[in-house]
Records
---
Amino acid sequence: MIINRSTQYTLQVLMHLVAHPPGRPVLARELAEELQLPPHYLAKLLQQPCRAGWMSSTRGRGGGFVLVPGTENRTLLEVFMLTGGERISRECLLGFKDCDDKTACVMHSHWKPIKKELMGQFGGYTLAQLATSRKRLPTWLTDGKTARGKGRPRNGGTLSR
């Protein structure tokens, strides 16, 4: 199973906001710059957690995105399901429409326990754990560099070009 780009970006944003001072809004533009994500795509991605009640957005001066209290306790599995992962939990690994315990494909019996274990692992990590544990974070999130290797201020400021 491969985590799609939408899920990856959503995780990056949520982890960033969990590590951000609570209640302080962050502009989508700032998130896009700091995480090196495409701004228009990011704006669309932010709609899902807002609709789910995980974050709120305010327009205008002093506005931006803020996590709703409790979102930091959401699991990786919940993020995965929010961003379309539920399809993976029920689809055949080989893409057959009629694949279940009764009409199984050649991979069904192998994939089913792996999928169950993976979903269990995803359910075992909260956003707060991921955001605060340096061991679990990519080095570019902890060493002052962006995913693309460009410098990122450690003080929470924006990138200078």
Note: The longest strand covers residues 55-58.
---
Amino acid sequence: MAVYVLDKYNLAFTFLISLGWQALGFAIAFGLQIDTITDFWSAVNFFALALITLCLGGQYDGRNIAASTLVMIWAVRLGAWQLFRMLKMGGDKRFDEMRSKPLSLAGFWSLQLLWVWVVSLPAILLNSPATNIPSRGGIHLSFGTDKDIAGVILCGLGVLIEATADLQKYRFKCVTKALKGAIIDLGLWGWSRRPNYFGEILFWWGMYILCLSPAIDQRDSTTSASISHGGRAALIASVFSPLFTMVLLLFISGVPLAEKPTQEKYFLMSHGPDSDDGHNDLEPFGKWQRECDPWARMRAHRERTSLLLPLPPALYWPLPRFVKTWVLLDLPMYRFDEAKDGTKAIQAAERKKRAENNA
């Protein structure tokens, strides 16, 4: 039997659950001055929202079970991996300046709250009375539509790509211990510079498509009942889930924090204050990396390897710059520009080295 809590869309109580959970996480992180729990904590939040809304909805149709189970699988994988990674690393450098500042740390945890709740919306709404309980305006639509199949396939591919990319990167850094200056271009990383982010984006677009059938098909084939206007609008509006994922990864916390700083590191290996200490004399690595100069190696890797969408280098390299930038999203904001950014990077590195020498 379905349980109705606060509103028929499951929005209020799922937000309150997330608010309480993230507030507790903030209190623990700030009180103990730790950051190993951050991503794991949010993964538990994702898992809980999927499980609780499925159970309270009381409608164990194939679509509801598939969507909720896929979210829980994704959350378990993410949480276990991030907890392992944080324990292995001993912390997260993102929080070095934030850890002792309560307002900054609270801002981060607020963003975590928004991320979990908004991105969970397709599953939350699919499991809500408004979409699957006839007395509340929902319908029972048989599982197996073309959107169901496409959604499950995309979700499966997404979680597989994300998990594989994370494991390949861990193996490259911690198991094989590649030569200094080597760039990861093995496996999925040979076709994409950020395949883990691509996998996450793909998963949540798949989840949205999977949860969309009641809104698009609208009518129960056995009873001819149709979904309410509110339920249909809510499911369609859950497109904010994959869109928010893309905005977060492409413009806030994903690619911007990873791509340009990595390129800057290789530029400084060639031109920074330590560049005359033998750091720019690299050994060949793999099939492609033959450049001895670190910055030349990074530029070549950048030109032949897609940012997100996995593509063979032979296909990606000859594409026009316009296509790479505006279709495949290798935006100017991700690219370290030697002429524009080089001098500032060198000066900052020199100041840092002087401060370390004077410490």
Note: Residues 43 and 75 are 5 Å apart (CA to CA).
